[in-house]
Amino acid sequence: MSVTDLPAPRSLSRQALLAMLAVGGLLLLGAALYGRIMGFDLRRDEWMFVPPAATLGDWALYSGQFYNHVPYSAWAFRAVHLALPGLDLLTSARLTVFLAWLLLLGGAFWAGWRIAGSARVGLFAAAIPLGSETLLSQAGMAATNNLLPLPFILLGLALFSAAHLSGRSPFGLYFAAGLSLSVAAGMKASAIAFVPAVVAACFLLPRGLPLARRARLTALPVALGGLAGALPLFWLALTEPTFFDHVLRYHSGPHVAFWQANAALEPGLAMGLPGKVQLAQGAWLAGGAILGLFVAAMAWTMRPRQPARGTDGARAAQAAAVAGAAMLTAAALAFVPTPAFPQYFVQPLAGLPVLAALAIRALPPAPRSVLLRALPAAVVLMGAVALPRLATGLADLRHPDRLTPARLSHGAEALARLAAPDGIAAGPVATLSPLYPLQAGLPIYPEFASGPFAWRVAGHIAPGLRASYVMAGPEDLARLFDARPPAAILTGFDPALETPLEDYARAHGYQPRAIPEINDRYGTGTLWLPAGAIPDNPGGTP
């Protein structure tokens, strides 16, 4: 037998090689996203959203502490914190955001693949949120309630669309759609904007059926799913008398009054329509969003003007109209709050992957094939938008001790050595930056559990409303601290707001000590301790 007769070594098939590359790419992408989230600088909003994960065991969400949002995001952070007790407080909260990202990207891929029947559309749909500059900034990186509703909005619209496209009125899909949209509204109240269009569609689709049958086959399962998702919210609203004072009256009263008087403090703030339009443009007409809108608009213009009634193309066009109407409603609602912040304009992005997939499905085979060939280029462009930010995430992972949760934990350890050198706290730590003492395992005042958010509006709250809040203002310090003196006072992050705390400390003999280990984007910590309580060398701290 000659050498040429020997069998050639088996090589990996092209499909297997592509699969390996895809898995490797997804793992690399996940690592970059995780690193981006964990390396993102601490944000003041996290002083509101993260503490309930630790404090809910001691104080109720509204009657026991100040919290000005609907509760599902706080419950989600709490659940992950309890499920993974080995993780520090901020890591568990940001891990929750990372899991929401995975659900958003996975849900977008599923929506594109299920609706349009193409993996290319699935990849394109998943690239839309990943290519959003707004979502790769504070709105999607910090542990707040801004990103958490997006996967549920997307899944709600996708499930409803898939149910309508099936032509069989499947109870399970409609039920899951109502459940998802309800959970989204429980994460953030403004997500309720996606509900009216879906509710209207329940009584208008499928076309050709009597209204009573539509109500039974479509509206009923969607309503049951929505009710199931909202039951905890309804129960809380009925049993917690201060719920609406926190969620509604705060945002329509003290919150607006404070920012009208202090608009110069926040550069990303918009108080009028021109500023809101600029914020909307940054969220909707850049990066992945603009490419997603372009593809959806191009597919819509390429579809038949009058698709035959009852055909798949007609059903896809109807579902696209529902998704588009829901997005327009959410977009209009984003302009209502004053002041407005960039994160207020991200919710319509959740419907864009579904809208694009439906527009592509509505195309006849020939133009659909042409458009599908162009999608990989769009995915590459979206990746180019995301690459600089995701690359910083990979770079941050090289130094785990420099990630934001690690730095916060390091500072908390230094705080514990100073405030409780023998391991036992003599009293609560008073601070407008509650994550540090909470991570250190030190007690805090419930009045300061939300950081500066109740404190800073104290002068703008009517007495009747203030009675609903567990809070303190500068005029309350003597009463609060005389009843329960602080073991320490932590400042150094907002001189204007913290001046009353420092004035109280000086007047009552507290001595300042710098804690360079506590250092974030807002400043470096200064710990005020009672006279004689400062150890010479607390656990190695110079």
Automatic annotation (TrEMBL):
Keywords: Membrane, Transmembrane, Transmembrane helix. It comes from the Bacteria. The chain crosses the membrane at residues 16-34, 95-113, 148-167, 173-205, 217-238, 283-302, 314-338, 344-363, 370-391. The keyword Transport does not apply. This is Glycosyltransferase RgtA/B/C/D-like domain-containing protein. It comes from Paracoccus salipaludis.
